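Lab notebook page, bench 4
Experiment: in silico fold of construct C2
Operator: M.H.
Input chain length: 211 residues
Purpose: comparison with the prior construct
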Amino acid sequence: MKYCPNCGQPALDSHRFCMRCGADISAAPVVDAQAQYAQQPPPHYYAPTPAKSSNTALIIILVAVGAVVLVPIVLIIAAIAIPNLLRARISANESSAVGSVRTINAAAVAYQAQFNHYPEGLASMGSPVAGVSAEYGAGLIDNTLASGKKRGYAFSYQGIDSKHTGAFDDYEVTACPERRNTTGVKCFFSDSSGVIRYSSSGKADKDSPPL
């Protein structure tokens, strides 16, 4: 292949005149097309410039949308779960209080068998005190219960001298929630009969219905 020296129009080797301008190209040098292409530098590829985007703005938008969607859901779940958890806690505290009243009843019976009278108070059934008679620390109940408070309930025990002989021949024990409707609902009562009674509206006594 050769090229017109006047206008650069390519032409076949056998052409004598340019097909574009009519110039004489019989003396134009013949060029190897493949060699000419090989000598040309390879074309450069320029990657397109990525479009600018604001990742910070996108994150803020996503967080805002998530908050709008999730906050009501969380509030609904909390509204359902919190009362259920409170009821479960109250039920567990009440069961613990009943168990503690039974423990006090059993300890009072054991105390009476040992000392021939019922204890004066909870401390008399608590841990022994060095240098003090076992009658005032028989070690029949744990110190937490002997303190009068356990698992959201306050316990009150009183020895009773019904015959005025100077010896406690009976007793009364009550257990009421420290914060009604929060740590418990029911109050409990028992005495030497061993029957546990309850009240859901106030302090229980010997006239309250049995469990």
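Observations: The longest strand covers residues 153-160. The chain has two domains: 1-43, 59-199.
Next step: discuss at group meeting.
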